[in-house]
Design goal:
This protein is of the alpha+beta class. It has one domain: Glutamine Phosphoribosylpyrophosphate, subunit 1, domain 1 (4-Layer Sandwich). Helix content is 31%, strand content 23%. It has ten helices and 14 strands. Strands 5-4-3-7-6-2-12-13 form an eight-stranded mixed beta sheet. Strands 1, 8, 9, 10, 11 and 14 form a six-stranded mixed beta sheet that branches. β4, α4 and β5 form a beta-alpha-beta unit. The longest helix has 15 residues. Bound molecules: glycine. The site of glycine has 12 residues, from β9.
């Protein structure tokens, strides 16, 4: 997808988030591309084009017969290390005060999960989330506590944001003086990587990681570190993850909603579509409110759907490596 489109995905002010019921538009005539399927054997799907490289990382684990949880961690670490990526990991854009704060979560087929939020100065929030999952009785650590935890477990500090990103932020700050002084949300992109995988034993896992809303208010957390919002896995049913405007995803407990709809018998693609429709129904002003969901059920059926056109996901199986356009409710 063109950078231009990504940057225009999230043009939404705080006033645009007032809740009220609106009728979802009919989308059938707008839907294009293939966006659902089924596989036997290992599979990994992940959000956006950056998912192509991330899936390769995950596939090294899946192809060797490894666990889905190891695959998703390894996969999204690729994106977290990509210094050209402005919405995930160390190349991400900072908050309005110039601090790059990262959010991530991870979950396995047994409902074990870990999450980290508002983490500054570490390259791999996903691995810190996993370390929380495996070494504490907690699910989520944020801020300084998470940073102390990460240092204790041997994660090294990195200097963030990158110089080029800091220069962009300084320019933004100068050009958005009013916005900077008033709490009005401005955002350029926040395209999370969410990844779902099933290993050769049929176990599901997921991971989700982001730098969040560019130039967000300090302290803001989106959906990505929140189990049930940015990611949810139920080994008996399926897994789902989200990308886009985190506030809208949180309002409907998005990924949990998708998994529960699959539990009720909906296909992954139908479940993602219904979750999008729920978001649409809960927002009066949908201007630029993009959210996309991906889902994978325990039988290897996968699918995705988004509020607006333009969402895609990377798919890798024994047979296929491709970028798939999802169905969507409306055009821009
Ligand atoms: N979906 C990522 C965020 O809103 O932070």
């Amino acid at each position: 997808m063109a950078d231009f489109k990504r940057r225009t995905f999230f043009k939404l002010g705080l006033t645009g988030l007032a809740l009220s019921i609106v009728k979802p538009s009919k989308a059938t005539e707008l839907i294009s591309g293939t966006f659902e399927g089924k596989v036997d054997g290992p599979i990994v799907i992940s959000t956006w084009e950056h998912g192509l490289a991330a899936n390769e990382g995950a596939w090294e684990v899946l192809n060797a017969g490894g666990r889905a949880i190891d695959a998703v961690e390894k996969g999204v670490r690729v994106t977290e290390s990509d210094i050209t990526n402005r919405s995930v990991g160390i190349g991400g854009r900072p908050d309005r005060e110039g601090h790059l704060t990262l959010d991530a979560c991870i979950m396995d087929e047994k409902s074990k999960c870990g999450a980290v939020g508002y983490l500054e100065g570490f390259e791999h929030p996903i691995s810190i989330a996993r370390t929380i999952m495996e070494n504490t009785q907690h699910v989520m650590l944020v801020g300084e506590g998470a940073e102390d935890f990460a240092s204790t477990y041997g994660f090294s500090k990195v200097k963030t944001p990158l110089k080029e990103v800091k220069d962009d932020w300084k320019k933004w700050k100068k050009e958005n003086k009013d916005v900077f002084e008033k709490p009005v949300i401005n955002h350029e992109n926040h395209d999370t990587i969410g990844m779902l995988a099933m290993d050769k034993h049929g176990n599901l896992s997921g991971a989700c990681t982001t730098s969040g809303w560019a130039y967000k208010m300090p302290g803001r957390l989106g959906d990505s570190p929140i189990i049930g919002a940015g990611l949810f896995v139920d080994g008996e049913v399926g897994a789902a993850c989200a990308t886009g405007l985190g506030e809208a995803v949180i309002r409907i407990a998005g990924s949990h909603t998708v998994v529960e709809l699959m539990r009720q018998g909906k296909s992954p693609q139908e479940a993602c579509k219904m979750a999008c429709e729920r978001i649409i129904a809960k927002h009066e002003d949908l201007t630029g409110l993009q959210v996309g969901f991906l889902a994978l059920d325990k039988n290897g059926n996968y699918g995705g759907y988004s509020v607006y056109a333009g969402f895609n996901f990377a798919l890798k199986t024994n047979e296929k490596t491709e970028l798939v356009n999802t169905g969507f409710d409306r055009n821009w």
